[in-house]
Amino acid sequence: MKTLPFFQMPAILILAVAFFACQRDARVEMPGAIDPQIVQDQDDMTWDDYRPIPGKNWANPSLVPEREFRIALIAVDFDDQPFVMTKPKHSDLFGNPQIDPVSREEIPQFYSDFFLKPSEVNNHQTINGYWMEQSRGRFGVTVLNPYGPYRMPRKLWQYGLSEWGQNAYTPDGSIVNYRMEPDVDALWKADVGDVRDQYDAILRIYAGYDETGVWQEFGEMKFQTKDDIPPEWGNPNPDKPRWAPTRYVEWTSWKAAQMQWGLSSMRQGENSGTITHEIAHLEFRIGDNNNNPYVEPYRRVGSGTWDMMDRGCFNGPGGPHMRWVVPPIAGAAMPAGLMVRNRLKVGFLDDEDVLTLSRDGLAETGTVVAHVTARAVEPLPGSYAGLIVRLDGEEPHDRTPPTDPATDPLSPGVPTYNFYSMEVVQRIGYDSFCPDNGVLLAMNKDEEGQSGGPNSFNLFNWVIDANPGDMNMIDFKRPDGTPVMRTIADYRQLNNALFHAGLNSGSKYEYVDEPNRLHFYIIDLHRNTDGILSYTLAVRSLDGEKNRHRDFTLSPPDAINAREGVQKVLFRLQNNDPGVDACPDIHPSGEVNKYLNNDVYRLAVNSMGEGWDVQILNELVSVETGKEAEIPVYVSKGKDASGTADIILVAVSESDPAVRQVAVLEITE
Fold it and tell me: Per DSSP, which regions of 107-193 are E strands?
């Protein structure tokens, strides 16, 4: 055994660094990645992908939230559109309903029960369960009183064609411009009086479909061209076109176009699974965070599948192209959780639930290392729900160089972000239908605002994509079999956005923002006995740290004998840094001393000996002051390898790269 100081080993260091540039093929099997990225596409998800939160059923109606939300559900139909749920199974033009029908008089109670009471029909998932899970019992829907059914005074198409330039595509040639809500409320008030003051929200369920869930599936996905639309899908007036304009593209079938588009007024068709999303608009005044993915120049989505206020509201079995299903038990049935920024905004997290740091403060105090628990559950002991770094200091706070959204589809828009957030996503609870487990890194704005440039949209969360390239996935195939690819603006391009710990995961374990002088690290992952996922995360200032001295030792194991196959050997790294003086006023979270007593070290390993291979599973390790960590190194000897070898491990302090050590393990015959 021998340990050499770094300055005596320039040749060995060169070899170690070269190892990163060109890894040799392993001659025998080595261990796999510690945190492999496993992305499951939305199209491939089923209800079998749901994983309950251990020991907690937030949909249990016996749980009483701190804030009880009361909704009146008003059900209406039309003389040209009966309730889909009253028809025989799979009998309507769209292939619904998916279950046995109910009578017209039963419709209001059916939908009240569907959205509020756990049952086999809704797979035991309710809108109350969603909000209880997100708020940890602070907010829930406890009342959903049914009213109706009522027959509307106008036909469905008179309301549905009153939007998105469809006004003149009527059967009788009239120009329509009607909103549904006044007529719904007039019927309701005439029946029971004006009792709106008894409720927090009015949910208007109308017979038929939200156009948002059928325009594409029963438009360009079903028909090759607008001239191929058959009579049963067209305008009932045979002299009129069988197509009509729609919100995002030139045309869809008239039957799809005549439907209303869901709005934040909580006006929902029978296929709508986005009621939770609309409650957030109404009660918490959170806007949409999504783009228009169909219009050029393409603009990347903000938070995509990872937040309910973006296209994460489409999460559920089968993905976005299954949002036509009645009742809504497929796409959009299981919206994603809310990101840290939004949970803080609506009061679902307290300040002490999140570790909040100052960018300028990091240059004073040095590297911060902390643990963050999966957002679907309460933070584990000694852990947080998220880590935040405020972009403070001299103006401008966000120093990201402006980019041109007209030419760069990945532009984050106007650089006016206020803070970074790090949180953990685990596919449990309502996050079961997110596409991956891992660490979600994002830039956030305190207040909402436009992204700027062409096709501007409301933007306040910008997820940092660990794999920003085009995933090159098919969106759908046209009737003639021609594939249509997902555009770079499709929200599913963020399916592989999460960061992962360790090497060879398929993702990244660090992110550097040079203009904003920050370096983020994903150090390691952990699972407790219930399988709850948490990560060790770190962040430091690229401007260094003041008044800190870094010191550590690196020790190899005793010499081992050569043998064929894989051997696991343990090097040891001890952090000898002095303690940290109290610094209570530097970071917003106040006293953060216990998170400053770690350093982060970067590792490199190599072997000197013919036919020998060596591997580490993680390039990063964090060790607390005065403590020691074991670093596993996997060594393999090939069939014709030399009898002896040296295994060289190099460790460098990320806080002070001038502080580094090299340890050598001798392997003898």
Answer: 139-151
Residue 330 sits at the vertex; the CA angle it makes with 147 and 266, to the nearest 5 degrees, is: 35
Measure the CA–CA gap between 272 and 204, rounded to whole angstroms: 11
Is the previous residue joined to 479 through a cis bond, with omega within 30 degrees of 0?
Answer: no
Contact 428, 376 (CB under 8 A): yes
- Res. 28: pLDDT tops 70: no
Q: What are phi and psi of 593, to 5 degrees?
A: -55, -40
Helix (H) or strand (E) holding 528: none
Spatial neighbors of 170 by CB under 8 A, at least 6 apart, are 157, 158, 161, 176, 240
Sorted by where each begins, the domain ranges of the chain are 2-30+547-668, 61-209+260-285, 342-541
Euclidean distance between CA atoms 71 and 101, whole angstroms: 25
CA–CA distance, 563 with 344 (Å, rounded to integer): 56
Task: Of 617, 496, 595, 618, give the one whose Cα is nearest residue 538.
Answer: 595
Model confidence over 126-170: pLDDT tens digits?
A: 999 999 999 999 999 999 999 999 999 999 999 999 999 999 999
From CA 327, how far away is CA 106, in angstroms rounded? 14
The predicted pLDDT at position 8 comes to 42
Asked if residue 269 lies in contact with residue 259, where contact means CB atoms within 8 angstroms, the answer is: yes
CA distance 259 to 594: 57
Residues 110/286/161/192 CA torsion (nearest 10 deg): 40
- Structure tokens given for 512: 């550097």
Integer Cα distance of 247 and 207 in angstroms: 21
Alpha-carbon distances, residue 269 vs 205, 213, 266, 610 (angstroms): 6, 9, 10, 69
Q: How far, in whole angstroms, is CA 77 from its chain's centroid?
A: 36
Helix (H, G, I), strand (E, B) or coil at 42: helix
Three-state secondary structure readout of 52-111: CCCCCCCCCCCCCCCEEEEEEEEEEEECCECCHHHCCCCCCCCCCCCCCCCCHHHHHHHH
Place of tokens 């609870």: 429
Has residue 660 got a pLDDT over 70?
Answer: yes
Copy the structure tokens of residue 629: 């960590």
What strands lie across the sheet with 368-373, from one edge to the other? 368-373, 533-541, 518-527, 510-513
Residue length of the chain: 669
Written as six digits, the tokens of 640 are: 């014709």
Residues with Cβ < 8 Å from 193, sequence gap 6 or more?
none
Among residues 49, 23, 33, the alpha carbon closest in space to that of 430 is found at 49
Least confident range from 279-293, 314-328, 478-492, 582-596: namely: 582-596
* Tokens found for residue 633: 């190194």
- The residues, ordered by sequence, that sit 6+ positions from 627 with a Cβ below 8 Å of its Cβ are 574, 575
Give pTM, 2 decimals.
0.93
Candidate CATH numbers 3.40.50.620, 2.60.40.2310, 2.102.10.10, 2.40.160.10; the one for domain 2-30+547-668? 2.60.40.2310
In this structure, what token pair is assigned to residue 473?
A: 């996935």
What integer is the mean pLDDT of 397-412?
Answer: 96
Q: Sorting pLDDT into bands at 50, 70 and 90, what band is 559? A: confident
Question: Does 417 have pLDDT greater than 90?
Answer: yes
Tell me: the pLDDT tens digits for 205-236?
A: 999 999 999 999 999 999 999 999 999 999 99
Tell me the three state secondary structure of residue 645.
strand
Whether residue 533 is predicted with pLDDT greater than 70 in this model: the reply is yes
Distance CA 393, CA 418 (A): 11
CB 35, CB 502: distance < 8 Å: yes
Q: Could you give the count of Cα atoms lying within 13 Å of 545 in the half-sphere of its Cβ?
A: 23
Q: Which of 96-105, 268-277, 349-358, 575-584 has the lowest mean pLDDT?
A: 575-584
